């Protein structure tokens, strides 16, 4: 991109990023110190913190949050790496990759409900084996979901996070020349898993560090998933805060704000600890990696991870398949494995809503993602140019560009605490309830995912192609689009698909910015999920999933065929013009 | 034409009572006409819990009728939690948005009403001057019409419907259901894992605690006092002793609880549990009709009566369309709307109108309402226990969570 005024652009973009974040933060920080004029509190105090630390529920919630929020990403990463090491570049794995997108695209609340129905004591798994094997005429009194240890929550998180990590890893494989390394390693006699562990994973990790951090933050702060499948006596800290924020006793808000600040600090600590652990681990294993052995005991870890990964994926799919079955069920009682009566009534009842919901959802998701892609490209190009300019003088400024840490802030902050503060800003601007406000808030959450997904491939791009093109034909804008962007198609399409599905899944931002005036498929599905009617939820989830799945499918299908199809179309057009001429 | 007829007939009825009232009423009807004029063309954003299809459909029906009769557009903003709406009004006040707020009408009662009233977030008083309120509501019929969970209503909200706790059981699984808290515990002891209740602070869960407290405590009278004026520990001790016994033999050993009445009905359908509860007297019939419960399910109430309350419509202080909102609240109080609402296949929510004040034709319509196979009649519903003072809800929820949720 032939950009000028890079410093000015940096400042402007940074300001645009900082402003809503700062307002949201202040709107959370001040109440955490008892300052909130609308409730008549004009003096700072530490009472919210004292109240917070006096709550037994706070400690129990925090413990649960830390367990689920750390264990889930560790397992998700382990399983994703195992699956990648097992299947990468193998023929069957291509089909497998295409299957990932549904799991990625489905809003997590719907997955959680599907899992609930799969795993609960009256769930499909038990039904399948009852009563002929288990002897159960009625569901057993087990605690297989919403268990107090959060195991089912961890499972749901892994189902959601593992495909995301795998997807991101696959998108970055080109930039580490995995195929070549693998061939060299295997010709030297290294077993497949050992080659991955010793050579590829250490190269891969720095490129996917950012997505991993996102996954950790998501695990620590998710509300809707934890509401559905997480334990509630106590619940995770994010859910507890959510409840406090919504308590009719408005003074609870102070304690909730303090809790939100504490949750933000915990995220920082966990991320720091994670990096420390990674540093130590790579130190300890350094000698082992270069000892020349072609096999290792840790191969087994990846082999086990592969099997667990497959089981996880399978349960995710079964959970998803159960949702459409529910949407067509009239009577489906335990222990029937399939509905005894079928009907289209459930879908018919939902039909009048669908047109409004679908158009709202698509307008919001498409605009937010499109803007996010353009803004990401602008930001990355600015960053690249500044990096290039300062390369000779000093390296530090280039490496620590403002965008790299600013972009994290929206996703590192718990939505519940942050969005209330931001809502006040929207009201000042008289934008509350406006469609543009919803798109802007979605943009805030879509942009980081798009930027981070795009960053690695974009910066790893070999600029020489573009330079060569400009030497041949000096049209910088045209070449930027037709050469550079065209070559980055896979990454851009992937980023778009991820951004789109992030936007579709947003619940709190849509509700808070739109004030309920704009319902999307997701807000409607979560409202229905609260009512516990699996038929309605099944119908909603079916629709909600359709669009992201379509976009993901396109992101995988289009880039490799793009040029072929484009040329074919050009030929046809040429032939036509010739004929008509 | 129709409107002026109503006004004249109200005035005529009241003329028999006393002359000054006639003057007032004529004056009132003139102001009401102004309100109607102002309301024309206004759009009212009605924030109401949107978790039940039948209720959403009823609101849509009302919206169509109001559009036809008064040219007021009613938009239903579906909430998952009424507290969201309270928070939104608060946020608007924080931002200084004191006019043209985003919410024009809220479906509300209890704690949320108290929070809004205490923080001056409400428009009013308005309800006592609504024509249908003056014509059909008898404030002495039920305490809950003027005392919303112990908070004086003072005309700041207009009654919409009445609810009472009912229990449901599947006659194919359980023939003689437990009809008191003590019987419930006995049943749970002989059938472990089949009894539960929604998790407080979900309002039905909190109501279960209040119901249990009413039956178990020897100090019933103290429940109508604000909680900080009585000895909470002493009064609630029997409740906690009871729950300590119940939880080990409850569904999933009392380690998790269902999140709502709807989830309880799902569990009842799956036969994970044997008794479900609801605040909606026609819930069982409606769910049987939808295929979510078997047709062997029946409703019942406890022998000593169950807790009941009134739910209301309130107008936030910063609405830009207070006239339109009042027109909606008034329509919701009309015999037509209340009869439709009490129809079991529509919603089945109890009317707030006084039967004695209705015209013969309307009385006949109420008499003719069909009941679903699993809905109890007014007589069968028996005695209603009043809600404790609204401060009890928070205190009970807090104590429950401190004991069982950490």
TrEMBL record, chain A:
Compartments (UniProt record): Cell membrane
Principal subcellular localisation of the protein: membrane
Chain ranges passing through the membrane: 12-36, 66-86, 98-119, 149-171, 207-230, 250-281, 301-326, 362-381, 402-428, 434-452, 481-508, 541-562
All residue ranges annotated as the ABC transmembrane type-1 domain in the record: 58-273, 358-555
Membrane topology, from the record: Multi-pass membrane protein
Listed name of the protein: ABC transporter permease
GO biological process, one term: transmembrane transport
PROSITE patterns, sorted: ABC_TM1 (PS50928)
Record keyword Transmembrane helix present: yes
From TrEMBL, chain B:
SUPFAM superfamilies recorded: Periplasmic binding protein-like II (SSF53850)
InterPro entries xrefs: SBP, YnjB
Regions annotated as coiled coil: none
Gene3D superfamilies documented for this protein: Periplasmic binding protein-like II
Record's keyword annotation contains Signal: yes
Secretion signal span: 1-23
Keywords: Signal
Entries under NCBIfam families matching the protein: PRK11622.1
UniProt protein name: ABC transporter substrate-binding protein
